[in-house]
Amino acid sequence: MVCGGFACSKNCLCALNLLYTLVSLLLIGIAAWGIGFGLISSFRVVGVAIAVGIFLFFIALVGLIGAVKHHQVLLFFYMIILLLVFIVQFSVSCACLALNKEQQSQLLEVGWNNTKSARTDLERNLNCCGFRFFDPNETCSSDCFRSHQCQPCAPIIEEYPGMVLRFVGGIGLFFSFTEILGVWLTYRYRNQKDPRANPSAFL
């Protein structure tokens, strides 16, 4: 049996989808852990993480069933969905790696102004108040607010976005290449004939 054979293509596709299943369960687990320990109170952030995890889980499930049963229709839809995910993820990963300091700062400020619950989490966890300036007349959930001696959150937050974006972009690029590998494997496997099948059967 060579690596380009039917059995090898099937096993590689199954292994790839098992990896996607583990990643999806990890995403859902991290979101649940964040809620359980009170680290994240933003239902929007948690909802997005859980939705991405569930979406990835169903894609992996479709790919796994299609690979095990050599199901032509499932493999076709799996290949198309994986290709679309690759295009989106590759674009987002490149955008994360291409952002400069000024763009990162603007993006952080937009996110700060549009997510009240995430802002509360950051103020509480980082012990800071406000984004650029501390205003003692505004409400704040950090411990330093009781003494009215808080520093703004922007200097603390802006230390990490470059590293985070590089990490996210790198992970995204890695998984985008596994997705294009999955598309190629699916296309190859879909056009191969099962040696155990009836030679006169329609594939």
UniProtKB/TrEMBL annotation:
Superkingdom in the source lineage: Eukaryota
Membrane topology listed for this record: Multi-pass membrane protein
Subcellular location as annotated: Membrane
GO annotations of cellular component type: membrane
Species this protein is from: Odontophorus gujanensis
Location, primary (coarse class): membrane
Bilayer-spanning residue ranges: 12-40, 46-68, 75-100, 167-187
Protein name stated in the entry: TSN13 protein
Pfam families hit by this protein: Tetraspanin
Sorted UniProt keywords: Membrane, Transmembrane, Transmembrane helix
